[in-house]
Amino acid sequence: MVRLSVNVNKVATLRNSRGGMVPSVVEAVRVCVEAGAPGITVHPRTDERHIRPGDVYDIAAELEPLRDRVEYNIEGDPRPDLVEMVDKVRPDQCTLVPVRPGELTSEAGWPADTPKAALAEIIARFHERGVRVSVFVDPEPGPIDWAAELGADRIELYTEPYARAFERGGDTLNVSLERYRAAAERAASNQLGVNAGHDLDVANLPTFLTLPHIDEVSIGHALMARALFAGLGPAVEEYLQITGSR
User: Fold this and answer.
1) What is the pLDDT of residues 195-219, one digit of tens each?
2) Active-site residue numbers?
3) d(CA 192, CA 209)
4) Which CATH superfamily is domain 3-243 in?
5) Tens-digit pLDDT profile for residues 121-163
6) Which residues contact 229 (CB under 8 A, 6 or more apart)?
């Protein structure tokens, strides 16, 4: 079984577009959990364009009684306020993601030449607090080896290139699948777990999950878009069937 972590950022985006508290991010989390989601993901950014610090703490309180069955994953760049947030919340997992100025969403993983000392110190700090650490990387040997040297527990493979290859199909898709297969094997050989996320959806996810060693997929935009027509609970259930959780 591959664990599904539902990213609820887009619920906060909709709320923020109008102001106020509707729709409620916590209520969305509740619906996802009631539908069987075994994980919830948030990505609080410095501009607070979707998830805000208050949301992070409110969701933590909602999930606290469920920690034996629902994992909480906080994504973000390792800036001081995010590190402090993770220290306080102590989620099940923190996914460290590089952020580029002006990006609409994540555009690439950590490059292999990123200096290791500061990140390794943060990872060790999170480990002391019982937090599993994943780092967001492209499906290439260099960044995967770099993640292992940092002391990370997992990698999260950036899957937007796979999604574009799936749209093209044929040899382009086959080449992409082999690239991600090799990346997953490389991670496993480094004793790293494998997460994946970005542009995965109901069409391309079944094919992606034929790859080995996948522990978790984080899905937000596509799932929330599907929820507009099917409802949030049924959309979660649809993804759970694909991941083998239902």
Assistant:
1) 999 999 999 999 999 999 999 999 9
2) 43, 75, 198
3) 17
4) Aldolase class I (3.20.20.70)
5) 999 999 999 999 999 999 999 999 999 999 999 999 999 999 9
6) none
